[in-house]
């Protein structure tokens, strides 16, 4: 490649799929509900794709990707393309004639959502993003088969618009490592052992794409930014040696994102693939010195991810240009891109009419990021002068952000600066606290409680919608919520639970509810981002310094506490989770943002305590999921995360009991961090793993109280009393009765009262029966 003749151009890895008004969600859900045909769905989808192709072309991208669209999930699409369809899902589509769109969609959505007879594929988080993918199931019997229909169709659709796109496929190493053993495979089956069987299928797909004119194909290998053993690195080398050996094939661009490639960089650099796409933002900035250290990739094209593809801030274009200037000397050809698919950000700031225009220009959603990418490419290819206006506007936007009162609140900063070790530690050791709490609460052994939320009924949802549209006023809404609280309290008293909750009926979402009441957070009107399938969320934007103008929960707490003589838990979302499920600021370390949120929540804890709460729960379900992808970054991360939790909770008296809750059972290496939270009681999911978590806690000599869940709230099933008893017995083998709590796995908001009532009654009966045997 000739360095002097290539004009850097702009490209992206992928674009939001949903359409400007989430047309895709409606189209897919209409199809599911039988309100539209397979053809109608496919036509809508093709229409949306065409619009995106055209829009990206109009915006000035030099190369447009295809096959990043999905009706549900791109990992599911990859499984489909490779013929990795579980037999149970094929069987689920018996009604439709094979080969028809009806049949294809029936099988596809059976994999995604399951059917009466067939469990869906498992869903899990896509790296450290809030997107969820479907986990392919592979076993020794998996017979791969190339089905390049989707990438071919999308390539052809773009061709009709006069565009030669770059199909994006999940790469073979990532596909195998993201998969799990099929139900009938040995549990220790390693999908990577299927590599030799898989590569010819990839080769066939690449050949098919080449035949119809694809010049480049992108293979995504994000698993390579995680710590991988030598076996994976050598498999990577082998895979790309194999895929580049074909005489007739498209050029290959191997893409990675979310972190630096580390040891995988020299491995990929040595392969004969024609291009690498690397992330140079956030922790992945480490790719730059690493690339320099190996002497660059002079024989390759580098697609440089210099715009953060997963956050929503206007890029510092000058800084990106500086990075690009260095990169120009390190590759045969450099093109500009966001760091990853823009799937993780909302579509367009242009529709956020409720946001202050001053603030709006700090933000860049997908559409704006495309423009930024084009601007950078133009600066490289045609000179800075050609984009002088854009650069000036960018500088002004960045300056207005750093000078704003929203991002700099003197009082908040002063308070955060004076936090001492004393503020983050409870003065009394746990045994002393436990005694004081027992004296105050006088709970029986095996105390029973719930995780916080009770069923969110239709009446509640409709009241919330009514408040939004003005159909009902605040007073009517409040009355509705209070009625719900009364019902929840009355039920818990009757069922005989020991520590009650108010049921969280006022919360639309455990993060949004608080974000709406804290300064520093912004809410969007159209900022939808795909969480999974047809589920979209609107994450709040943590834009400024955080403070709490007024108490957020004490009104509801008091209302509930006045209805009963039993203790009612105060209920808050923890600082780490408040960050994890929001877009966070990029102009200061996460640790600083966490500290500000923690201080605001600390005040709320103090208010709850003053209102009489003897038990306060601070939920941190996101603690583990925020972990950096590279293990060497874990200690620093966990240090500030646990400190923020302790800053939130350690201002209370010895006899105030702090609970926390996490939704998962496998701690792996974060158990020391969980210990570091110093919570008096922790509740966790444990039912499905049959109390494995109790064994783990015991093995680690966890010194405080724990409530491993005994009611699986993810399914409508109601556990019988003896089943709960068995689980509690299993837990008692590992944890002493005076430190074992009895509770469900998680909140009950997604369940129905008809299930929750008997399930909690059984839970209380089981605990009471067991108490008599102690
Ligand atoms: N307190 C919350 C609830 O019960 C906890 C939810 C969660 O852990 N995700 O709904
Ligand atoms: Zn939970």
UniProtKB/TrEMBL annotation:
Q: What class of enzyme is it?
A: transferase
**Which keywords label this protein?**
Amino-acid biosynthesis, Metal-binding, Methionine biosynthesis, Methyltransferase, Repeat, Transferase, Zinc
Binding of Zn(2+) 1, residues: 661, 663, 676, 685, 746
What residues does Zn(2+) bind to? Answer: 661, 663, 685, 746
Give me the residues that bind 5-methyltetrahydropteroyltri-L-glutamate, please: 22-25, 125, 130, 581, 625
Active-site residues, record numbering mapped to chain: 714 (proton donor)
InterPro entries hit by this protein: Cbl-indep_Met_Synth_N, Cobalamin-indep_Met_synthase, Met_Synth_C/arc, UROD/MetE-like_sf
The reaction(s) this protein catalyses: 5-methyltetrahydropteroyltri-L-glutamate + L-homocysteine = tetrahydropteroyltri-L-glutamate + L-methionine
Q: Where is the Cobalamin-independent methionine synthase MetE C-terminal/archaeal domain?
A: 446-768
What does the record give under GO molecular function?
5-methyltetrahydropteroyltriglutamate-homocysteine S-methyltransferase activity; zinc ion binding
Q: What EC number(s) would the UniProt record show?
A: 2.1.1.14
Residues at which L-methionine binds: 451-453, 504, 619
Its Gene Ontology biological processes?
A: methionine biosynthetic process; methylation
What NCBIfam families does this protein's entry cite? met_syn_B12ind (TIGR01371), PRK05222.1 (NF003556)
What's the family? Belongs to the vitamin-B12 independent methionine synthase family.
Please give the name of this protein.
5-methyltetrahydropteroyltriglutamate--homocysteine methyltransferase
Q: What's the source species for this entry?
A: Kitasatospora aureofaciens
């Amino acid at each position: 490649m000739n360095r002097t003749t290539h004009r850097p151009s702009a490209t992206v890895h992928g674009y939001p799929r949903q359409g400007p008004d989430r047309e895709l969600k409606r189209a897919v859900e209409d199809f599911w509900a039988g309100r539209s045909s397979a053809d109608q769905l496919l036509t809508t989808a093709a229409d949306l794709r065409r619009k995106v192709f055209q829009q990206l072309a109009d915006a000035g991208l030099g190369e447009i990707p295809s096959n990043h669209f999905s009706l549900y999930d791109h990992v599911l699409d990859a499984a489909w393309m490779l013929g990795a369809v579980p037999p149970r899902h094929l069987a689920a589509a018996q009604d439709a004639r094979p080969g028809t769109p009806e049949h294809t969609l029936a099988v596809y959505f059976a994999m995604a959502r399951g059917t009466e007879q067939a469990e869906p594929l498992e869903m899990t988080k896509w790296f450290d993003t809030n997107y969820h993918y479907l986990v392919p199931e592979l076993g020794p019997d998996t017979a791969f088969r190339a089905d390049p229909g989707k990438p071919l169709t999308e390539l052809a659709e773009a061709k009709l618009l006069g565009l030669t796109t770059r199909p994006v496929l999940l790469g073979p190493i990532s596909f195998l490592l993201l998969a799990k053993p099929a139900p009938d495979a040995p549990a220790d089956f390693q999908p990577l052992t299927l590599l030799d069987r898989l590569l010819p299928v990839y080769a066939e797909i690449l050949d098919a794409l080449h035949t119809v004119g694809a010049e480049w194909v992108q293979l995504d290998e994000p698993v390579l930014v995680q710590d991988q053993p030598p076996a994976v690195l050598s498999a990577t080398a082998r895979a790309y040696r194999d895929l580049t050996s074909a005489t007739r094939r498209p050029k290959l661009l191997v893409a990675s994102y979310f972190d630096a490639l580390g040891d995988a960089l020299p491995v990929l650099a040595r392969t004969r693939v024609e291009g690498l796409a690397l992330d140079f933002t956030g922790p992945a900035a480490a790719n730059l010195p690493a690339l320099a250290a190996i002497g660059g990739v002079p024989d390759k094209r580098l697609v440089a991810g210099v715009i953060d593809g997963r956050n929503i801030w206007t890029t510092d274009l000058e800084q990106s240009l500086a990075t690009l200037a260095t990169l120009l000397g390190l590759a045969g050809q450099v093109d500009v891109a966001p760091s990853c698919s823009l799937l993780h950000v909302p579509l367009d700031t242009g529709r956020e009419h409720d946001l202050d225009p001053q603030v709006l220009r700090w933000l860049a959603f997908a559409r704006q990021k495309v423009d930024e990418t084009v601007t950078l490419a133009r600066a490289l290819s045609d000179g800075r002068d050609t984009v002088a206006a854009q650069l000036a506007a960018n500088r002004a936007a960045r300056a207005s952000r750093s000078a704003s009162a929203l991002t700099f609140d003197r009082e908040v900063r002063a308070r955060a600066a004076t936090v001492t070790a004393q503020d983050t530690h409870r003065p009394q050791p746990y045994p002393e606290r436990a005694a004081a709490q027992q004296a105050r609460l006088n709970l029986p052994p095996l105390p029973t409680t719930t995780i916080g939320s009770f069923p969110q009924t239709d009446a509640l949802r409709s009241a919330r919608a009514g408040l939004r549209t003005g159909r009902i006023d605040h007073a009517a809404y409040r009355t509705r919520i209070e009625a719900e609280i009364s019902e929840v309290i009355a039920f818990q008293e009757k069922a005989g639970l020991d520590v009650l909750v108010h049921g969280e009926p006022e919360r639309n979402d455990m993060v949004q509810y608080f974000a709406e009441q804290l300064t520093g957070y912004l809410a969007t009107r159209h900022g939808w981002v795909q969480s999974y399938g047809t589920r979209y969320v609107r994450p709040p934007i943590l834009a400024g310094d955080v403070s709490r103008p007024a108490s957020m929960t004490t009104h509801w707490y008091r209302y509930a506490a006045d209805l009963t003589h039993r203790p009612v838990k105060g209920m808050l979302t923890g600082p780490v989770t408040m960050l994890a499920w929001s877009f966070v600021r990029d102009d200061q370390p996460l640790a600083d943002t966490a500290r500000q949120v923690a201080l605001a929540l600390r005040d709320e804890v103090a208010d709850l305590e003053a209102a009489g709460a003897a038990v306060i729960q601070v939920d941190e379900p996101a603690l583990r999921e925020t972990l950096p992808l590279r293990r060497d970054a874990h200690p620093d991360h966990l240090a500030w995360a646990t400190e923020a939790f302790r800053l939130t909770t350690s201002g209370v008296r010895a006899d105030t009991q702090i609970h926390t809750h996490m939704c998962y059972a496998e701690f792996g290496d974060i158990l020391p961090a969980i210990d570091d939270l110093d919570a008096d009681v922790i509740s966790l999911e444990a039912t499905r793993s049959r109390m494995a978590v109790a064994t783990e806690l015991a093995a680690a000599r966890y010194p405080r109280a724990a409530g491993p869940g005994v009611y699986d709230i993810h399914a409508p099933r109601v556990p019988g009393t003896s089943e709960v008893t068995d689980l509690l017995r299993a837990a008692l083998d590992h944890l002493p009765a005076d430190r074992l709590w009895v509770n469900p796995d998680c909140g009950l908001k997604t369940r129905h009262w008809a299930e929750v009532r008997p399930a909690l009654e059984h839970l209380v009966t089981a605990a009471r029966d067991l108490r008599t045997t102690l």
